[in-house]
Amino acid sequence: MQGPISRFRTAVAATAANLATAASRATGRGAGGMIGGLVAAAIDPNIMASLGGGRPTVLVTGTNGKSTTTRMLAGAVGAKHKVATNDGGDNMDAGIISALLAGKDADAIVLECDELHVPKVAERLQPTAFVLLNLTRDQLDRVGEINSIERALRAAVMAHPDATVVANCDDVLITSIAYDHPNAVWVSAGAGWTGDSVTNPRSGGHVVRSSVTHEGEADWYAVEPLPDGREFRRPTPTYKVEGETLVGPEGVAKLELKLPGRANRGNAAQAIAAAVEAFDVPLDAAVRAAADVDNVAGRYTTVHLGDHDVHLLLAKNPAGWQEALSMVDRDADGVVIAVNAQQGDGEDVSWLWDVKFEDFGDTHVVAAGERATDLAVRLTYGGIGHDTVHDPIAAIRACPPGRVEVLANYTALLNLRRALTKEEDYRA
């Protein structure tokens, strides 16, 4: 319980944060999703815990799919509760504090959380549930070695034995995080990228994958046992995605999503499982909420620039790029691939050589962004015919009239969306 001095400090921090957020929006410097939280934390270092207030909280984390899963889960939980959430994607401490300030009257909290921030955020908010999506290489200059992240997340999750842990059993590293938790709910959400989980993260030795088991499901297992002698193997899922269908303990539900791709069906499955298991949301309501999501912070949307219909896709790391490439319409009139290397993207672009770029056939491909030249070298070695136009808007205009697929990493997509709104022939 807060004393009078603590309550006064929290009140001052909240007032200052609201003023900073309003100023940021009024001056056009940003949406205010970060600045308010930064100001509040500087005044009251304990404000996150104070704002949490013991409300039921779920943290969604993983390398890819956090924003999409959080949006789906917040919608599902919203069927029963008033929800506070960081739907703008600001998933570090400052963004989380801003979301809690904006949702101070909510009775449930659904937050996406950056992998590195989960331990401290969980310590402050004491979550009732975690949703663990996937774990792969991401921004090597910031995040670092992937097995160290697995160990930190494992410790954070195990520190909350009463929480519900919704975990993707097809991902070896995620399974390792939740393997010993007493309240794990296993979801077969898929694992499109397996290059970072070829060995047992706990005791070494190869991980063997088989496409089908005697039960008709994909399987994996470690050839070496865990230090205590147990086998480390894919758990049996409680929920699983079969094509466009979700199979769970309450029956079968059709996943009629507006968002494309196998990965988003997996995101929906975990959001639905978390809503049902942690918040007692009826299955049909959770499925409807997932189906209602049609874009996430401008991703997956189609906008119009002159005589081009521009479909926007975000990709941030090898796993994300591989999924995004599978969503590209090969019959499009043009493809623009935009790569930056700013804060938020990671300065190391060596991941370009890990991505299996597809043959786009006769589709017009344009390399764009601040690191267009690095991308062009990679496309050249991949045997992909392309042009290089650093300005993404000019790259779109360089494509033939019609539908243009744009794949961009974080700041490239953010900057492109801002630039598009300034073009005279732009229409949302």
Automatic annotation (TrEMBL):
Alphabetized GO MF terms: acid-amino acid ligase activity; ATP binding; carbon-nitrogen ligase activity on lipid II; metal ion binding
Pathway in which the depicted protein is active: Cell wall biogenesis; peptidoglycan biosynthesis
GO biological process: cell wall organization; peptidoglycan biosynthetic process; regulation of cell shape
Keyword Transferase (UniProt): no
Keywords: ATP-binding, Cell shape, Cell wall biogenesis/degradation, Ligase, Metal-binding, Nucleotide-binding, Peptidoglycan synthesis
Active-site residues, Swiss-Prot/TrEMBL: 348
Enzyme Commission number, as recorded: 6.3.5.13
Annotated Lipid II isoglutaminyl synthase (glutamine-hydrolyzing) subunit MurT C-terminal domain residues: 314-413
InterPro entries: Lipid_II_synth_MurT, Mur-like_cat_sf, Mur_ligase_cen, MurT_C
Residue ranges of every copy of the Mur ligase central domain listed in the record: 60-275
Enzyme class: ligase
Reactions it catalyzes: beta-D-GlcNAc-(1->4)-Mur2Ac(oyl-L-Ala-gamma-D-Glu-L-Lys-D-Ala-D-Ala)-di-trans,octa-cis-undecaprenyl diphosphate + L-glutamine + ATP + H2O = beta-D-GlcNAc-(1->4)-Mur2Ac(oyl-L-Ala-D-isoglutaminyl-L-Lys-D-Ala-D-Ala)-di-trans,octa-cis-undecaprenyl diphosphate + L-glutamate + ADP + phosphate + H(+); beta-D-GlcNAc-(1->4)-Mur2Ac(oyl-L-Ala-gamma-D-Glu-L-Lys-D-Ala-D-Ala)-di-trans,octa-cis-undecaprenyl diphosphate + ATP = beta-D-GlcNAc-(1->4)-Mur2Ac(oyl-L-Ala-gamma-D-O-P-Glu-L-Lys-D-Ala-D-Ala)-di-trans,octa-cis-undecaprenyl diphosphate + ADP; beta-D-GlcNAc-(1->4)-Mur2Ac(oyl-L-Ala-gamma-D-O-P-Glu-L-Lys-D-Ala-D-Ala)-di-trans,octa-cis-undecaprenyl diphosphate + NH4(+) = beta-D-GlcNAc-(1->4)-Mur2Ac(oyl-L-Ala-D-isoglutaminyl-L-Lys-D-Ala-D-Ala)-di-trans,octa-cis-undecaprenyl diphosphate + phosphate + H(+)
Cited PANTHER family: LIPID II ISOGLUTAMINYL SYNTHASE (GLUTAMINE-HYDROLYZING) SUBUNIT MURT, MUR LIGASE FAMILY MEMBER
Protein task: The lipid II isoglutaminyl synthase complex catalyzes the formation of alpha-D-isoglutamine in the cell wall lipid II stem peptide. The MurT subunit catalyzes the ATP-dependent amidation of D-glutamate residue of lipid II, converting it to an isoglutamine residue.
Subunit organization: Forms a heterodimer with GatD.
HAMAP family membership: Lipid_II_synth_MurT
Similarity-based family: Belongs to the MurCDEF family. MurT subfamily.
Protein name: Lipid II isoglutaminyl synthase (glutamine-hydrolyzing) subunit MurT
Organism in which the protein naturally occurs: Corynebacterium haemomassiliense
Lineage of the species this protein comes from: Bacteria, Bacillati, Actinomycetota, Actinomycetes, Mycobacteriales
